[in-house]
Design brief:
Blueprint lengths: L1 H11 L8 E3 L1 H11 L1 H23 L3 E16 L4 E23 L3 H63 L7 H35 L6 E3 L14 H11 L1 H21 L5 E13 L16 E11 L4 H69 L5 H36 L12
Parallel strand pairs: 1-4
Antiparallel strand pairs: 2-3, 3-5, 5-6
Helix pairs in contact: 2-4, 3-4, 4-5, 4-7, 4-8, 4-9, 5-9, 6-8, 7-8, 8-9
């Protein structure tokens, strides 16, 4: 009987718990960048843009064209002045032609196309960097959001335990519950209601973090589970504006886009100019039902071999099309130049605005920290007085309410302060948070 039940017990027994990976913020960002599908797609676009250089080069590279065919033909005998054709007899004719061209001088048109293709690749690189900067911000947002939810959850759990402890001590001093005990009981239920709400946010924060870093649900969590004050050295706003001019990918994107459009315009304008190249051809035909014509001055389209080699020009006259393309690319370049001036001014304003928001977050954090300390002192005094029978339930409830409000404001101020640094890094275009980049 034991042998029958043993396999069943093994199947029903719970397996080992999956290990949860604890990630520091930098590790979480690196993992998200490695696993993000949108960034992987952007990298493929960079790779595809690189192939455009080869395509542009190939358009002006050596070209070999071949033609080979076979068909029916009637029998004929004779020469250039006398021919006898027999339409009742049919044979076959084999014909073919090979041409080779190698451009030697394109007036810089090939180089224009290659330069435009390389610039297009850099535009895609800048676009990818924009996506990566946004992903970095979103990972930080999820990381700090988890810490905020967990900090609030632990604070409420600790406050609830302290409240229950004070209530138990007070019960030992009074036999019958009165108004004060009822007041505390009501307040306790309100705390539990808030606790349920915070637990919900905590679970959602775990889901959000897993989504941002690209891991399975519950398989990875932030290593630092609580929001803690981390002083940082803040530099001047002009310092960050100068960094934005260097690292903001939008500047590179517009600059390389202008360069690409201007080169395409030049290339299309040069399409009206002839291409100097080496040219060669070999043409042959052969049939078994017509008399071959001897001699180099006798043209025989049915039995011949002809070879040509030389240097010459090749034209492709499409005036309206070439001019229209050149004008189009020139107009697009001018449009980007106008956008560049506006983007420069707009990005500088954005950096200064985000810098001021960081200053505001620092000031709010200082005020919230002092209020948090005062609220803690108030609650400690009321809790001691209530437990000893000297304080009132109303005073304790007010102290707990003030403590909860100041703690909530404190943790939210920490969150906003951390997120303000994340926002500054995003608008500057490179990591400037001293915790993640000591040289920032």
């Amino acid at each position: 009987m034991l042998r029958l039940f043993l396999p069943l017990v093994c199947l029903l027994a719970p397996g080992p718990a999956l290990a949860v990976e604890k990630l520091a913020l930098k590790e979480a960002i690196d993992l998200a960048i490695a696993k993000n599908g949108d960034l992987a797609s952007q990298r493929k676009q960079i790779e595809a843009a690189g192939f455009e250089v080869g395509r542009a080069s190939g358009e002006f590279g050596p070209r070999l064209e071949g033609l080979l065919g076979v068909g029916p033909i009637t029998k004929a005998e004779g020469n250039a002045t006398f021919v006898t054709e027999d339409t009742d007899v049919w044979g076959r004719m084999v014909f073919g032609k090979i041409t080779f061209t190698h451009p030697l001088y394109t007036w810089g048109r090939k180089n224009n196309y290659e330069s435009a293709a390389r610039a297009g690749g850099k535009v895609k690189e800048a676009e990818t960097q924009i996506h990566e900067n946004q992903l970095r911000f979103e990972v930080k947002e999820a990381y700090y959001g988890y810490q905020l939810a967990n900090s609030l959850r632990d604070f409420i759990a600790g406050g609830k335990a302290e409240l229950l402890k004070s209530m138990e001590k007070r019960k030992g001093k009074r036999k019958d519950p009165g108004k004060e005990e009822y007041r505390l009981e009501i307040f306790l239920r309100e705390v539990e209601s808030r606790e349920a709400e915070v637990v919900k946010y905590f679970e959602l924060a775990k889901e959000g973090f897993a989504l941002r870093v690209g891991t399975g649900r519950g398989s990875a969590l932030p290593k630092e589970e609580w929001l803690l004050p981390e002083p940082r050295e803040r530099k001047t706003s002009e310092h960050y504006v100068e960094l934005a001019r260097q690292f903001r990918p939008e500047f590179k994107q517009v600059r390389e886009g202008i360069f690409a459009k201007k080169n395409l315009a030049r290339a299309e304008h040069k399409a009206l100019w002839p291409v100097l190249g080496l040219m060669a051809s070999y043409e042959a035909a052969q049939t078994n039902v017509r008399t071959p014509q001897p001699g180099v001055f006798s043209y025989d389209p049915y039995n011949h071999r002809t070879t040509s080699l030389g240097v010459g020009f090749k034209w492709d006259f499409q005036w309206e099309l070439a001019n229209a393309k050149a004008d189009k690319y020139r107009a697009e370049a001018e449009e980007l130049e106008l956008k560049e001036d506006y983007a420069k001014q707009g990005i500088e304003v954005e950096v200064r605005k985000t810098y001021l928001e960081l200053v505001e977050a620092e000031d709010r954090l200082k005020a919230a920290t002092e209020a948090y300390k005062t609220g803690k002192k108030w609650l400690t005094g009321e809790a001691i007085g209530f437990s000893s029978g000297l304080g009132s339930a109303q005073g304790l409830v007010e102290a707990y309410g003030a403590r909860a409000e100041t703690a909530k404001n404190y943790f939210e101020a920490l969150y906003r302060h951390d997120l303000a640094w994340a926002s500054l890094s995003r608008v500057v275009g490179t990591e400037v948070d001293p915790i993640l980049s000591p040289g920032g």
